[in-house]
Write a structure and sequence with these properties.
Elements (H helix, E strand, L loop, with lengths): L9 E2 L1 H5 L7 E5 L3 H6 L6 E2 L19 H11 L6 E5 L5 H13 L4 E4 L2 H7 L29 H7 L5 E5 L3 H5 L15 E2 L6 E2 L5 E2 L2 H11 L6 E5 L5 H11 L3 E4 L3 H5 L16
Parallel strand pairs: 1-5, 2-3, 2-4, 4-5, 6-7, 6-10, 10-11
Antiparallel strand pairs: 8-9
Helix pairs in contact: 4-9
């Protein structure tokens, strides 16, 4: 059996390029299909993000059935020993959500390619074109893991606790209630808002912002390592990015996959309108 390589969670494009081809590695590209077909990291297979979404109200952003998860990861060729490298064309939202899905199915070997295809192309690195067909496996998802997500009820029980905070990754307009996407606008009481794309360095091809500065900024908002952190957006796509950043920074971060699609459409849960309480 090939040995699984030792790769960091946050993987720079030049570091990956210098090591390719790698055995026992599955590179998953979640870019738009036409972009993937035009150019992708050598050996990368394509995954349509919709296949990891339930797509059903009230929680369209939740994971699909265990059977569907098994089918998806078998088609991709995942094995328990495979190291997954995830990337996309938008700075990490879909890739982060994939890493959350891997956590949920109990797969711990993964990396995020910092900046994704934009950083790869900007560095002038070699690409492939066309469709890369994976070698299928028989990967069975038998249960979802605990410790990586929180339900609506979990959050309701934690509201007001000093060791708990909600990181809302939506736009400021959605957070304040100025823009209403669900039945109700606003935010979860006590939640702080840091819109997901602000964490991407547009001068460095959507790589994650300087980690020390990011950690300090979050700390100033109350998002600190001593707290349990729930992150969400509208359907747990944008918060795939904040989940990823939380992991990279070593925070106790968990996804609220129901997100505002669930919370904002429930008339019985508390909602607050207005600006963020911290910065």
């Amino acid at each position: 059996m090939s040995q699984t390589p030792s790769l960091p969670l946050l993987l720079e494009v030049e570091d990956l390029a210098s090591q390719l081809p790698l055995s026992n590695v599955l590179i998953i590209d979640q870019s738009k299909l036409d972009g993937y077909l035009q150019h992708h990291v050598p050996g990368a297979v394509h995954l349509d993000f919709k296949r990891l979404q339930l797509g059903v109200k009230p929680t369209p952003g939740a994971l699909p059935s265990l059977q569907q998860l098994s089918e998806v990861f078998s088609e991709l060729g995942l094995t328990p020993d495979t190291h997954v490298i995830a990337y996309d064309d938008e700075g990490g939202g879909w890739a982060g959500r994939l890493i959350w899905a891997l956590d949920m199915i109990g797969h711990r070997h993964y990396s995020y390619l910092n900046g994704g295809i934009h950083a790869w192309l900007a560095a002038g690195l070699t690409t492939d074109s066309g469709q890369q067909l994976p070698t299928a496996s028989d990967y069975q998802v038998t249960e979802l893991q605990t410790g990586f997500s929180l339900s609506k009820q979990d959050i309701l029980e934690r509201l007001g606790n000093d060791d708990f905070i909600v990181w809302d990754a939506r736009s400021e307009q959605e957070y304040t209630g100025e823009k209403v996407v669900s039945a109700r606008g606003g935010h979860i009481p006590g939640a702080v808002n840091y819109e997901w794309t602000r964490g991407m360095d547009k001068q460095r091809h959507l790589r994650i912002q300087n980690l020390d500065e990011f950690r300090q900024l979050l700390s100033d908002m109350g998002v600190t390592a001593d707290k349990e952190i729930a992150t969400h957006c509208q359907s747990h796509h944008r918060s795939g990015y904040t989940y990823l950043v939380g992991k990279i920074l070593g925070l106790n971060i968990k996804a609220y996959a129901g997100s505002w699609a669930e919370w904002g459409n429930d008339p019985d849960v508390p909602v607050v309108e207005g600006p963020s309480p911290r910065g």
